[in-house]
Design goal:
Elements lengths: L1 E5 L4 H12 L3 E6 L2 H7 L9 E4 L17 E4 L12 H24 L6 E7 L10 E2 L9 H13 L8 E7 L1 E3 L3 H11 L12 E2 L1 E3 H13 L5 E5 L5 E2 H12 L9 H8 L4 H4 L3 E2 L2 H5 L9 H9 L1
Parallel strand pairs: 1-2, 1-4, 2-3, 4-5, 5-7, 6-13, 7-11, 8-10
Antiparallel strand pairs: 9-12
Helix pairs in contact: 1-6, 3-4, 7-11
Length: 306
C-alpha cells in the first residue's frame, strides 16, 4: 500500500513508519518541519520514504501528495497534557486536531484518485471520566473540555464517508512504550520516589505501542473494519495497580504518591488527564478478532522496561 501519514515524527507515528517501512509500504510523511522529518527518517535508512512539508490548518500544494495514496493515517495533534489549558492552548489543541482534520478530509475528497481509507485519531477522553462506569464504543460522550474536543475532532473526519472513503476512528487510550506518558512516569521510580498520581483509584485504560501500531495497520488492510474502535487493551487497571507493577519490575518502591494539588498547580485543568480516568473496553477490535500481543499490563511493562 501507499500511505500518507500526518504526525509521523511523533511517538506513535515514528513506530508506525518503522513497521510499515519494514513491510514494504510506500510512505509519504506530511510534516510541518521537513528538516526534522529527515533527521527522524534519514534517507540512508528510509530510501523509499517521501517527506512533504505542509501547514496542517491550511490548504496548499501538499494536498497533491494525497492523490494516488491507498490510505491516509491522521495522527497529528498538539500534546494534550504537556502544559496548562489556557484559552490560547485550548485554541491550539482545537486547531491542531479539528481544523487540521477538516483540511485533510478536504484533500482526500478532492484528490484526483482518492484514498480508499482514512484512519483518524480520537481519544478515550470522548467518554468523560468516572471511577465506576465502564465505557465501550456505544457509550455516549461526556461533557467536559476533552469530551467536547473529541466530538468535534471525530465530526471533522465524518464527511470523508460522503465520498465513499472508508473511515476508521481510533480512540486512543494511554499508549505504553519507551517514551510518551510512561517515559515521564519512570523518572521518579528511578529515583526511588515512585508512586501513583493522585488518589491511585482512577482507571488507567492503556495499550502497548506494538498493539496500537498493529491495530492501525489492521485498520488499513482490512476492508471490513470501519467506524469507531477503542484503541485500548482488554484489561484496564487502576493507577495504583499500574504503579505497583512498575515498582516490582524495576525493583523500586511504589508507595510515594504524587498529590493531586501538586499536579493541579503544575498543569491546571490539564491535570484531569492523569488525575481522573475511565474504564474503557475495546469491544469492536475484539469483534474483529484483532490479535492483541499484550492484553494484560504486566507482560507489556516487562517488555518495555527490559
Amino acid at each position: 500500500m501507499k500511505v500518507a501519514i500526518t504526525g509521523a515524527t511523533g511517538f506513535v507515528g515514528s513506530h508506525l513508519v518503522q513497521q510499515l517501512h519494514s513491510l514494504g509500504y510506500q510512505i509519504i510523511v506530511l510534516t510541518r518541519n521537513p528538516d526534522r522529518g529527515r533527521r527522524v527518517f534519514p534517507v540512508a535508512n528510509y530510501p523509499q520514504l517521501e517527506i512533504v512539508g505542509y501547514t496542517p490548518t491550511e490548504s496548499g500544494s501538499w494536498e497533491d501528495a494525497i492523490a494516488g495514496c491507498d490510505g491516509v493515517v491522521n495522527l497529528a495533534g498538539a500534546p494534550i497534557a504537556d502544559e496548562r489549558w489556557t484559552e490560547a492552548r485550548k485554541q491550539e489543541l482545537y486547531q491542531s486536531r479539528v481544523i487540521q482534520t477538516e483540511k485533510l478530509v478536504l484533500a482526500c475528497t478532492k484528490a484526483t484518485r482518492q484514498p480508499q481509507v482514512l484512519v483518524s485519531t480520537s481519544a478515550i477522553g470522548y467518554y468523560g471520566t468516572s471511577e465506576t462506569a465502564t465505557f465501550d464504543e456505544s457509550s455516549p460522550p461526556g461533557n467536559d473540555f476533552l469530551a467536547n474536543l473529541c466530538q468535534q475532532w471525530e465530526a471533522a473526519a465524518a464527511p470523508v464517508k460522503n465520498s465513499d472513503i472508508r473511515l476508521v476512528i481510533l480512540r486512543f487510550g494511554i499508549v505504553l512504550g519507551m517514551g510518551g506518558a510512561l517515559g515521564k512516569m519512570l523518572t521518579p521510580f528511578k529515583l526511588f520516589a515512585g508512586g501513583p498520581l493522585g488518589s491511585g483509584k482512577q482507571w488507567f485504560s492503556w495499550i502497548h505501542i506494538s498493539d496500537l501500531v498493529n491495530l492501525i495497520r489492521f485498520s488499513l488492510e482490512n476492508p471490513q473494519v470501519e467506524g469507531v474502535l477503542n484503541a485500548t487493551a482488554p484489561n484496564p487497571i487502576r493507577m495504583n495497580e499500574l504503579c505497583q507493577q512498575m515498582g516490582q519490575i524495576m525493583n523500586r518502591p511504589s508507595w510515594l504518591p504524587v498529590p493531586s494539588f501538586a499536579l493541579e498547580m503544575l498543569l491546571g485543568d490539564a491535570a484531569i488527564v492523569v488525575l481522573e480516568g475511565q474504564q474503557v473496553l475495546p469491544l469492536r477490535p475484539q469483534s474483529y478478532n484483532f490479535p492483541y500481543q499484550y492484553s494484560t499490563v504486566k507482560p507489556a511493562l516487562e517488555e518495555i522496561l527490559a
